[in-house]
Amino acid sequence: MTDDGGTGPNKVDFTGCHTGSGVTKSVTVQLRRAVIGPDTGFDTKTYTACFNGGTSSGEWGAGSKGHDYYFRITKVGGSSVVGPTISVDETRMSF
Question: Which band of pLDDT confidence, cut at 50, 70 and 90, is reported for residue 23?
């Protein structure tokens, strides 16, 4: 998604998070900016409300006009080790 240069935050929402094991109750998300060379990573947000039927939101400051952004899941259940998978009923990104 490309930032339109507005003053609002970059935001990623997850609604309805599920894992195969059913035990995991958190997912950590990092906002990334696509650039030539290594992509720029911003801080991470840990989502929990989406596991209880709600919506979890992560907000980062306003981005730079014309840059492409994406999100990356860095941890599931607090672990960065490959293991449980996650599915999300609805994902929304806004800039």
Answer: confident
How many angstroms separate the Cα of 39 from the Cα of each of 7, 10, 42, 76, 90? Answer: 22, 16, 10, 22, 25
Residues 74 and 44: beta-carbon distance below 8 Å = yes
State the average pLDDT for the chain.
Answer: 84
Q: Regarding beta strands 27-34 and 55-60, do their DSSP bridges make them parallel or antiparallel, or are they unpaired?
A: unpaired
List the structure tokens of 27: 């997912």
- Annotated domain spans of the chain: 10-94
Cα(59)–Cα(29) distance, integer angstroms: 11
Report the amino acid identity of residue 79.
S
Structure tokens at 14: 């997850």
